[in-house]
Amino acid sequence: MKISAFHLMPHRELPADFEQRYESVWVTPPWWELADARRVGQYYNWTLDELLHAARSGFDGLCTNEHHQNAYGFMPSPNLMGSALAKLTQGMPVAIVQMGSTLPTSNPPIRVAEEYAMLDCISGGRLVAGLPLGSPMDVNLCYGITPMEQRERYREAFALTLRAWQAREVFPWNGRYYQLANVNLWPRPIQEPHPPVWVPGSGSVSTFDFAVAQDVCYCFLSYSGARPAKTLMDGYWEVVSSQGRDLNPYRAGFLQLVAVSETDARAEEEYARHVEYFYHKCLHVPGPWFSPPGNQDYRSLLAMARNPVRRLENPKDLRYRDFAERGYVIAGSPATVRQRLEEEVVKGLRVGNLMLLVQIGSMPHELTLKNITLLAREVLPHLRGIWDDVGWVNHWWPRGLRGVASAPMARATAP
Amino acid sequence: MTTETRTIPVWQGQVHMRVLSKGRGPAIVFFHGPWGLAWDPFLDELARSFTVYAPEHPGTSSGRPDDIYSLDGVWDLVLCYDELLERLGLSRASFVGHSFGGMVACEVAAASPGRVTRLVLIDALGLWRDDARIPNWMLLHQGELAGYVFHDADGEAGRRMFEPPDDPEARIMARVGLQWAMGATGKFLWPIPDKGLKRRIHRVRAPTLLVWGKEDRIVPPLYAEEFARRLGGARIEIVSQAGHAPHLEQPEAVARLVGDFLTE
């Protein structure tokens, strides 16, 4: 299987009473009260260094993503980060996984196709093209896209992107939302017919259907671990088989928070406050902002109202031990983390493309490096062979990197 | 007298418009707000002296949620209403619009000035001032809505519009219906409810009455002046003990104001 390091690039030093003092971590947090540009420059550089460390330590891929106007994770352009990483990992067998640029907020959306093609060229064909729908906070609240149009715009832009990468002729696009008389991308990606596509989601059934119909990898970005994801992922695999696709585990990606230390007790000592910071501050958003009217279609609304995805608990009421015990974060000694990742996530959900959130909330740079080192050395080697022994091929990974075995020690000395 | 219901296909059959009507006398077309249409005491009052036609906004009619995807913007919506009025045989009528419906009534009046005899706008959306920002009700918890829409959040009108029914299935349908009504109307308002009416409003020729709730927390009474400034000669009536829906909180008083104006 393939295991990537995921980074949100959060604000790491929000005030202790942040969630009492401010309405939201997203859309409206006041920059001038909460942040400093020079310090934020340091965060960006730490983020790049941490991901580079992951590459050198033996992770298979590096994930960045797009969000706007927030302290939860503020890479408004993940491709700026991806570009630096593509250059810094030149010659390494590491995928640049953009999770990614948001089509409905890019106008015209071929901008994403162009930048991804650039990244594929710079990286020598190591791009994974994540094509997310975008969160309502980003797309509807920050970027002003009408909720009811978001999915329609996304689907149109998705079709345009795939065609723009592959078309041999200059073509006109006379769409409902986008009109371009001469589509003729420069550059085109190295990978043919196009870079592997991942579609991230947060459990919406219509996104499942779309991912399966398009034959791409569906990635569930969950912050509550594998247990509540089980029903959803089972639903995904049902859709996969009902549409006559094979049950290749690489059709599924999953994001899991992880925190490793020498022992379980030490992990609690080192990571507890950073995990609580993440759940209490970084996810501090008013509930209705997650589903503005029209963002979900009528059928999904009705399905959700009839069978609510049971909100198990309010994360603000939980503490580190609850998060760890319930699997929101898989934390502890290498043995604990190996075992839980394998049982709960990889096998439990049938996941081939695993993403690990290696920097959580306020986790400082040094501790993040330690987390990455221990994961790469003590955990990854035990998981990596899981699906390969059964012969599944990861069609959703850059072809040139599919067969590459990890050699972390060799890479540790790479430039 | 009972309320009649009929469904009229427009837009090449892609939009089925459900129209409630009642009463006898000159025709009034009532355009409802972002929370859907329910026949109410205000419409009953009007129906004593007028024939009231109250169409449901596309997408908000039971069983036809996806109709809304056939309309892309204000121009489509205005033409959709033009077709509807044609099919109803209403070459001329008075328009009464509340909130979002006020904006729609005004847009239709600007597009076809000859169709409208008199125009009444009740706490209408459609204009924007940076110094009086309109809060986005679509981002509130459903439980908070009554407090924004009504002066008396616990009053009868507020309960009628927003109180969840007891029956579990009815409760689900009400919650989903309310959310969808906000989505289907919000399609023409997001993210700022100013879609260019200010460039078109000068075309309105009908004498206009502006009725505003004194305590409107969504579109404050300042906007009545903004509309009046752009509609030369429009009269303003401020209704006390009322928020964003004065016709629901003070139905007799507002029906009297409207009735007197329409028969002047």
Structure, explained:
The complex is a heterodimer of chains A (about 425) and B (about 260). Chain A has about 425 residues and is an alpha/beta fold. Chain A is about 45% helix and about 15% strand. In chain A, the strands form 2 sheets. An 8-stranded parallel β-barrel of chain A has the order 1-2-3-4-7-8-9-11, surrounded by 8 helices. In chain A, strand 3, helix 5 and strand 4 form a beta-alpha-beta unit. The longest helix of chain A is centred in the N-terminal third of the chain and has 21 residues. Chain A is globular. Chain A starts with a strand and ends with a helix. Chain B has an 8-stranded mixed β-sheet, with helices on both faces. The two termini of chain B are about 25 Å apart. Chains A and B meet through helix 7 and helix 11 of A and helix 6 of B.
